[in-house]
Amino acid sequence: MKVSRIMWYAGTVFTTLAMLAASTTAVAQQHTRTVHVRSTADSSRIERQKSANLRSFRGIAAKLNTTPEALQDAFQTARVANPKLSRGNFIAANVLANNLGASHPNITTQAILSGLQSGKSVGQTLQSLGLSASEAKQAKRAADHDTKEADKRVKDADKRARQEKRSQR
Predict the structure, then answer these.
(1) Cβ neighbours of residue 90 under 8 Å, at least 6 residues apart?
(2) Which residues contact 107 (CB under 8 A, 6 or more apart)?
(3) How crowded is residue 159: how many other Cβ atoms within 10 Å of its Cβ?
(4) Which of 1-5, 48-52, 82-86 has the highest mean pLDDT?
(5) Secondary structure of residue 92 in the 3-state scheme
């Protein structure tokens, strides 16, 4: 009687262990599928963000006589040096350097980015580079206007292209 009881317990334990192993394997496989789906979704989300960032540099790139890819690469490089750098401040630095560089050779994109990295605002940086407070304010307004104008041109061109595409259908 004792042998049969031990065999029954052993059979029950082995069956339980086999079921536990099977369920653990199933959970691990499900987890692997979930991680793969997430990583695929994350990578596609990252690609969409990169594409959107690249598109957002189109207007200002045309004004600065460069390519959106070059601007995006420069922005990513500048973000390595200053992780708090915003896209708007980066664009402002480039436009200000483009607008003021001829009359003030010490105002360069790198000089403005260095000022921003040290914790100064764009206006404070321009003042430290030799502009008066009113000149800095005026230059910042002109840069903002140029940026908005460039973005508007691109949006209008995109709108016209969409309308043309619709009319061709």
Answers:
(1) 74, 75, 78, 113
(2) 96, 97, 100, 101, 126, 129, 130, 131
(3) 10
(4) 82-86
(5) helix
Structure tokens at 41: 């979704």
Question: Residues near 137 by Cβ (< 8 Å), separated by ≥ 6?
Answer: 123
Which tens digits make up the pLDDT trace of 92-138?
A: 999 999 999 889 999 999 999 999 999 999 999 999 999 999 999 99
SS3 category, 119: coil
Residue 102 has φ and ψ, to the nearest 5°, of -70, -40
- To which residue do tokens 């042998």 refer? 3
pTM of full prediction above 0.85: no
